[in-house]
Amino acid sequence: MSSPDPVFVYGSALISNLCFGLSSVYYTEFSKKISPIWMNCVKAIVATLAFFITIQMFYGWNEVSTKAILMAMGSGFLGLCLADILLLRSYTVLGAGRTLLLFGFQPILFGIFGYILFSQGFMLKNGVAIVILMICLGLFALERRQLTGQWDGKAFGIALLAMFMDATGVLITRFVFESQPQLLPLEVNFYRALGALLGFLILSPLIPLRLFSGFKSLTGRDRIRVVIISLTGCYLALMFYLMAVQKAHLATLSALSIFGPLSASLLECVLEKRMPSWQQTIATLLFVGAVVLVLR
What we know:
Layout: H1 6-33, H2 36-59, H3 66-94, H4 96-101, H5 106-118, H6 124-148, H7 153-179, H8 185-203, H9 211-216, H10 220-245, H11 250-255, H12 259-272, H13 278-295
Helix pairs in contact: 1-2, 1-3, 1-10, 1-12, 2-3, 2-8, 2-10, 3-7, 3-8, 5-7, 6-13, 8-10, 12-13
């Protein structure tokens, strides 16, 4: 079996993180306007419909075991429902950039579990790239600390819990791909999004979704924006991410997630009409160097 093309695998991961990072800035806006669970439910609905239409029109469905479907749905419940509710709640306090920084701990988790569960070793260049990307994370954390002057422990705790849930969801998804190699990433994404929707239905008696009233409170322009960011930050981001999860070295893949907070932070600079800090500039240059190393 030929080894996967690193440009395709990690290029897909970069596109995914770019889509999610940029969309996260706007997720924060609508989470504050209405609620995090409303924003998450809307993007899950839009993504589920988009995945279903794409598969039905262009690919068709592969045979899959009931166990694999349930595992994928469980992964979606953890990673796209519970984790994303906590993630967007943290966004409203810390902002998208600072929250996504905590996902820099995932390379350590994935390095351990990738070795134990999938016999993934480390090439020297992967290890060097991860160290560089963790330095980027440190620079980014320093920059955010200087801007705010304090840390919000409760919000960071919520974000860390979201990170662990997301990591668990990714590991379950990788098991699905390992057991059902015929499945397309689009199909797995559909089952994951469906699991997230089921999760929102289960939680709705405890946490009101306000689905229709939330939409009604928005202007026509904002309703269009919500649909667009749901397509970019959930449909496109998940589609490209699972293309990478299917074949990637998990620790290296997760280290590249620094591109999410990096892109979110740079977009915040554009929206706030300010220049990037020296930490952001150095982190960007280091990030580019790490990506070149991984893709060689």
